[in-house]
Amino acid sequence: MTPYQELANAIIEQAAKDYRIALAYHFKHPGNPKYQQNVCEIERFFRSDWYDALTDLDGEYLIREIRRRVQSEVAV
User: Fold this and answer.
1) How many CB atoms lie within 10 A of CB 34?
2) pTM passes above 0.85
């Protein structure tokens, strides 16, 4: 793996971690606009041209899967 690929993977991985945290806070405190804003910003990244340049992984798929997992964790 090239250093570029390693950096791209690290960026995507960190965004996914940040998204999980933002969603958990948002689901626990749905009325807080700060948490909603964080979720929207990260989703915008997953739908961006920059994200597409970093990876072939479908951003919408990643959003759905992380949302599904966080919702099931918060529901427990």
Assistant:
1) 11
2) yes
pLDDT of amino acid 1: 81
Tell me how far apart the alpha carbons of residues 9 and 1 are, in angstroms, rounded to a whole number: 10
Domain range summary for the chain, segments of one domain joined by +: 3-75
pLDDT at residue 76, as a whole number: 60
C-alpha 73/C-alpha 76 separation (Å) is 5
- Amino acid symbol at 42: I
Please report how many Cα atoms fall inside a 13 Å half-sphere around the Cα of residue 48, on the Cβ side.
Answer: 12
Q: Could you tell me the CA-to-CA distances from 60 to 3, 11, 14, 46, 56 in Å, in that order?
A: 26, 17, 17, 7, 12
pLDDT confidence of residue 75: 74
